[in-house]
Amino acid sequence: MDADVIVIGAGLAGLQCARRAQRSGHSVLILEAEDAVGGRVRTDRVDGFLCDRGFQLLNPAYPAVRQWIDVPALELQKFGVGVVVRKGQTATTLAHPIRHPRHALATLRSQLTPVSDVVAFARWMVPALLRHSTASTSARDEMLAASFDAAGFTGRLRRDVIDTFLAGVLADTSGESSANYVRQLMRFFAAGAPGLPRAGMQALPEQMAASLVKPVRLGTAARDLRETADGVKVMTDNGTIRARVAVVAVGAQNVAELTGLPTPVTRGLTTWWFRAPARPRSGPFLMVDATRPGGGPAGPIWHTAVVSEAAPSYAPGGENLVEATTLLDRPDGLAGEADVRRDLARLYLTSTDDWEVLVHHVVPHALPAQPPPLEAPGPKWMGRRILVAGDHRASGSIQGALHSGEQAARTVESVLAS
Ligand SMILES: Cc1cc2nc3c(=O)[nH]c(=O)nc-3n(C[C@H](O)[C@H](O)[C@H](O)COP(=O)(O)OP(=O)(O)OC[C@H]3O[C@@H](n4cnc5c(N)ncnc54)[C@H](O)[C@@H]3O)c2cc1C
After folding, report:
1. For domain 50-56+76-197+267-368, which CATH number applies: 3.60.15.10, 3.90.660.50, 1.20.1290.10, 3.30.460.10?
2. What are phi and psi of 247, to 5 degrees?
3. Which of 6, 95, 276, 350 is most exposed, with minimal Cβ within 10 Å?
4. What tens digit of pLDDT does each residue of 159-168 get?
């Protein structure tokens, strides 16, 4: 045997699984098809800028992050807890009144936050505030849009702010995601101050990989795997590897080819990264667009941020880095550079002619779909020695991936002990 456990995929789930199995005293080998660890959490360095492969934030309030990640070592640079809402010529900052007291009065007095909407939203959130578990699987669940309607949350705050913000977070504009899942997310948003590591999001998986005894075998794709009489064998382009048990921790789009399980439905997005010579004004907040009559953005961009305002390390001295995210479930999800540039000019009320595209990431399988009822089925056995894990077996988030990896390591214990 080459190892007790072979882990396929060095995303967050695979890395957490490997770390936990190693801590339990097992020998672990981890294979990764790409040239670095991280999976969907990778960072490109472009001309001194840090451009994550798809804009995302690390929320230190996630229980899995609190428990298993050395957050202080990542030197998180915090985003504002709130949003800037663009409506025509007006930009309004709505922010957490306690974390951002400077914006409290404007937030509470804004036409976007009528008391009736705030009360209805609070009513909708109550079930999540009363629950402490991270998996609200036992509660009755329904589609997000229907649950907002049922709570009477139908006014401007929803139409102009929350629907657009959530569509960007979920990469899903249908309103058909699980309401319970979104309640969980909102609870974590309120509890934490999401941010970006000083060295880019990839610092997270790199921190995890650094504690492995055996380095991850990069550039090594598992082509096939089979159960044998006493374990598993994994075929790679460089030969066969044998172990007592295998954990398949690949993303949703690669599950079928290795396991024969159906491919989970996923949601996609694209992120454009721009260098802006002059600093656009929006502060350290995400900006959403409420310009279209009836709500939603008037162009292809669902959210944008001057990332370097919140995370100065993402841009070299004094320069400005702007992200803009489009959603692939929209007809304009693959809008070209000219359209995105025009939309940014409208959103920041400035010319973008001299902005330079650093890189454009198209991420067709960014997140597994999260329909109701919210289920966290957990890792799945394929036979007796092959276990399937990953965010698609928990929830489409850093929390879900870490939790799934940890669960997988615990689950294979029973086989390793026999
Ligand atoms: C653009 C974007 C924005 C996001 N925003 C957020 C956010 O703000 N907050 C949040 O909590 N979460 C966010 N997420 C979700 C979060 O990043 C993912 O849930 C998490 O990273 C998934 O980890 P994973 O280990 O399950 O899968 P993956 O990261 O997909 O890892 C799977 C790994 O398996 C490897 N692999 C595949 N096939 C093989 C093979 N045959 N052999 C060997 N290796 C293989 C892949 O190369 C990959 O490295 C976002 C994701 C994206 C893409």
Report:
1. 3.90.660.50
2. -115, 120
3. 350
4. 999 999 999 9
